Amino acid sequence: MGDVAGEITSSANVLDSSEDSAGPDGVPDESFRTSRPDIVGSDVPDAPFPIKLSGPVQHGFGRGSKDLGCPTANLPDDSLPPMIDAAETGVYYGYAQVTPPEGSSSSLSDQDVRVLPMVMSFGWNPFYNNERRTAEIHIMHKFQTDFYGYDMKALVLGYIRPELHYTSREALIEDIEFDKRVALKSMARPGYEKYMTDPFFTV
C-alpha cells in the first residue's frame, strides 16, 4: 500500500523523514512514536480541509495487498494538484466512494458503493523509494471484486502524521493498523460524520 502506517515499534525499524520529529543530529525522536494520540485534529476539519480528489481508479504498484495485506486504490496523477497545492506529504484520513462509470454495468454491491472511511498515503512512500508522488487510498471495507477504471471520489478531512522511512516491513504493517484506528476514531465525531452525506458524493 505504500506508506500508510501507525504505531512505531522501535528506532531500529523506523527512520522518520520529518524534521519536526527528529532530534538535533537527525536521529528520530522516540517520543514522537510512543506518545502518538489515537484521535487527531480538532472537532471539525480545519483549513485546508476538506480537500476534494476524484478520478478513475488506476493500476498501482501491486504491493499493498500482496506485501502488506492492505489493498489500495490509486488516483491518477492529474487528480493530485489539490493535495500538492495545499498539503504536505504524509498520512491522511477522510471518506471515499467508488462508483461505476456512467452508463456501465457494475459488479459492485450496494454496500460497496457507499461512502466509506479511508486512510490515504500521499507522498513518496520512502519504504518503496517511489520516484513520484502518489495518492494511495485504502478504503476500510472488504470489496469482493476489483474496481479498476471505476470512478473514485475522496474527501480528505485530516492529517495523521508525516511519512516515515521504514527498514522493517513488520513495523510498517503494525503502523498501518494503528493509522486505521486513528482514522476511525477521529471521524467518529459529529463534525466529521456529516461529510458522509456531502453533496460531493453520489448519495
TrEMBL record:
GO cellular component: mitochondrion
Molecular function (Gene Ontology), one example: ATP binding
One Pfam family of this chain: Flavokinase
Functional pathway: Cofactor biosynthesis; FMN biosynthesis; FMN from riboflavin (ATP route): step 1/1
InterPro entries documented for this protein: Riboflavin_kinase, Riboflavin_kinase_bac/euk, Riboflavin_kinase_dom_sf
Region span, Disordered: 1-48
Record EC number: 2.7.1.26
Record GO biological process: FMN biosynthetic process; riboflavin biosynthetic process
Enzyme class: transferase
Domain called Riboflavin kinase: residue spans: 50-188
Domain of life, per lineage: Eukaryota
Alphabetical UniProt keywords: ATP-binding, Flavoprotein, FMN, Kinase, Nucleotide-binding, Transferase
Gene3D superfamilies, per database record: Riboflavin kinase-like
Family stated for the protein in its record: Belongs to the flavokinase family.
UniProt xrefs under PANTHER family: RIBOFLAVIN KINASE, RIBOFLAVIN KINASE/FMN ADENYLYLTRANSFERASE
Function: Catalyzes the phosphorylation of riboflavin (vitamin B2) to form flavin mononucleotide (FMN) coenzyme.
Protein name: Riboflavin kinase
